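Notes from hallway chat w/ T.B., transcribed later so I don't forget. T.B. wanted the structure written out for a chain they're using in a teaching module, and asked if we could keep both sequence and C-alpha cells in one place. Agreed to drop them here.
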Amino acid sequence: MPKLLPALLLSAALSVSGATAFAQSLPFDSTFGVNGIANLDFLPAYNVIDLTTQRDGKILCLYGSSSYTYVIRLNADGSVDNTFMGGEGHKFYNPFPTEVPGVWQIGGKLCETNASLIKQTADNGILLTFRANINMKLKANGEVDASFGNSSPTNGQLNLSLGTAPQKADYIYDVHDAGEGGLYFASNTRALYAAPYDTVLIAKTTKNGQIATTYGTGGVKAIALDTNTFGYVNLARELAFAPNGKLVVTGHCYRRSHMANYQDVFVARYNLDGTPDATFGTGGVTFINIDNEDQTASNIAIGADGSVYISGITEKFLAGTRRYFTTHLTNTGLPDASFGTGGNVISTIPASAITWSEGATAVTSYGKVYKSCIYTVGFMDWRSEYFAYNAAGGANTQFAAGGIVNTTGHINNDNYEKPYRMYTQPDNKVLIMGAGNAHPLLMRINGDAAPVAVGQTADAGFKAWVSGDYAYVSGIAPGTQASAIITTIDGRILKTYNATMLAGNGTNMLSLPGGMAPGMYILSVQTETGKQQIKFVY
C-alpha cells in the first residue's frame, strides 16, 4: 500500500473551477460524478488516506483532518450514498453545523497518513485501521460491530499495540483477510522518518478481532531484515499483502558487495507464518540495481497473476540525475524480461522540478500500469503527472499521447488535485483520490476494457455465464461427462463442482464460493465437446 508524504505536503488549495480546468487532460469516465470527478465540496481540507470498493460496487473513502476522521460511501456513479448509517451521518462528535447523510464522522485525530486503511472484509464488513492501537470494524450498513476486537479502548475496537519492542506493532501498512483463518496485519516497529528500522511484524487475530496468542509471541511474529541477507543499514518502506496472503516487503539497503554509496532496493516475500517464501527470488529476496544508481522504493502494486510492481526514484547524487522507475518482477521474483528493459521502465522527472515524489501506482488485471507523480516548480506551484504503460512497459497511447499526462498547476494550488491514492476497480477502471486545502475529490479514469470471455471454444455446445452470486451452465446433453471450477486470475482453485451438479437437465445454477473478495475470477467448464473459460468480476 503506497504511503503519503507528511501532512506538510498536503497544504495546497483546490477549487471546483480548477478541477474542471484539466478535466479533458485525463481519460475520465464520463459515467462517474460530473465528467469523471466526484467533487466532495461539502468537506473542508483533508488528508487523503485510503479507499476501497464493496462487492455491490459502492466506494468507501477514508479522509482525515487535524481534528476529525471521516468515512464516506459513494454509489458506483460517484454520488454520495445517503443510506450509509441509515442516512443519519453517524458520529461521535459533529463538526458540521448539520449532519451530512452518508458521512461517518469520528471525533479525534485518528487518521495517520502512513498508517490508516479501509478494507472490505470477507463477511461484507468494513475494517478501519488507525495505526496499531485503534482498529475498528463496521457492519455493512456502517454501524459499529461491537462483537469485534478486544474492547480497547471501546467496544468494536482492537488494540494491537500491546507487546514490547521489537514485538510491538506500530504503523499498520496492510491487512489480509483469510476468512475463517483470521486477520493478518503487516506492521513495522518504528514510525516512518523517525529512524531506520529493520524489523517487520505480522500480527494475527481471529476473524472477530481476538488476538491469536498462539501465533508468534503474543500474536505477533517479528521478521528481522538481517544484514547477511539484505546488507547493512536497511530500511523497510512499503508492505503489502498479495491476494493469496503472501507478504511483500520493499525498501532499500547498502549491499556489502557494492560500493557504500550505492543504495539498492530489495523486494522480499514472506509466507503468512513469517517464513521467507523460498519460491521468490533467492531465498525469498530480490534486489533492484538500476545503472549503478541509488534507488528508493515508494510503492508496491500486486498484479492479478501475483507478480510484483515496484515504483520509486533512482538517482545518481554526484551527477544530479533523478528519474522515476517502475520494475516488474514475475511471481517467482525474477525481473520480467518482457517489461521495459530488463524488467525496468524509466521515466524522466521534469527539469523544472524543485521537489518531487511518487503518488501512487495501480495495475489492471491485464498488466497495464498507471502511476501518479507530484512535483513543484516554485513556491506553492504544484504539478501532477501521470504515466501509463502497457503490459510490455511501453507507452500506453490509449491513455494519452506518449502515455503521459502532465496537468498544469498554478500558484496557491488552485488547479491541483494531489493524486496520492490510486485503486483499480474489479472492472479495471482506476479511481484516483486527491486532496487540497479547499476540499477532497475522487476521480475515475477508463482503464482496460471490461473483461470478456477468453479461451472460449466456439463448438463447445453449451453456454456458461456468471450473474450475481451464481454461475450458470446450460446446454449440456444428458449423460455427458462435465466438470467446472472457479479459480482466481492467477490459477488458485476456489471451488470444484462435481459431475452431478452439471447433469444435463436444462440450466444448472451453481453457487459461487463464500468469502470471495471483490476482484476478477475465472469460471472454467469442461465437457466432452469442448471447454469454456469465462473471466468475470465479482
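Follow-up for T.B.: The first helix runs from residue 16 to 21. Might be a good example for the class.
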